[in-house]
Specification:
Elements (H helix, E strand, L loop, with lengths): L1 H13 L17 E7 L8 E7 L6 E5 L5 E3 L1 E4 L2 E4 L4 E9 L10 E2 L4 E3 L4 E7 L5
Parallel strand pairs: 1-10
Antiparallel strand pairs: 1-4, 2-3, 2-7, 3-5, 5-6, 7-8, 7-9
Length: about 130
C-alpha cells in the first residue's frame, strides 16, 4: 500500500500541469463565405474581410479576398483556428489590397451582417470605392 501511495505522489509531483482546470470551451462557429465587389460591380482582387461580433467584441474572424472577390472566414481564438465565426450580428470591415502608389484605407460597411446556424454566404459591396 505504501508503494502505491508513493508512486501516486511521485506521479502528481512529476506532472503538475495535469491537475489544471479545463480550459473554457470554444464557441460554436458557422461557415461564412462570400464575395466582395467594389462600386460598379467589379470584384475586389485581394485584401481581406474582417467580421467583428457586436455582441462579443473579443471575437473576430478574418478572410483573405481571392482574385475573383471570394472569401472564407476563420476565427483565431486562444491559439485555435475555427472555421467561420460565431452566431449573431457582426461589424464588417473590408481592407482593400494596397496598390503600389498608395495605401488603401479600410472601409467599415454601414450595415452589419448577421451569421446564423448553417452555411452563411454574403455579397459585400464597398460603396464609394473604385479601384
Amino acid at each position: 500500500m505504501r508503494i502505491r501511495l508513493a508512486l501516486l505522489l511521485a506521479a502528481l509531483v512529476a506532472c503538475p500541469g495535469c491537475a489544471k482546470a479545463p480550459s473554457v470551451p470554444l464557441p460554436t462557429t458557422y461557415p461564412v463565405t462570400g464575395k466582395v465587389f467594389f462600386e460598379g460591380g467589379q470584384p475586389a482582387t485581394g485584401g481581406s474581410v474582417q467580421f467583428r461580433s457586436t455582441t462579443d467584441s473579443s471575437i473576430s474572424a478574418l478572410g483573405e479576398i481571392g482574385p475573383d472577390g471570394s472569401f472564407s472566414l476563420t476565427t483565431h481564438l486562444d491559439g485555435n483556428k475555427l472555421p467561420g465565426t460565431i452566431e449573431g450580428p457582426h461589424e464588417v470591415t473590408v481592407i482593400p489590397a494596397m496598390s503600389e502608389e498608395q495605401m488603401e484605407i479600410p472601409v467599415v460597411l454601414q450595415e452589419p451582417c448577421t451569421v446564423g446556424p448553417g452555411d452563411n454566404e454574403f455579397i459585400l459591396e464597398v460603396p464609394g470605392f473604385r479601384p
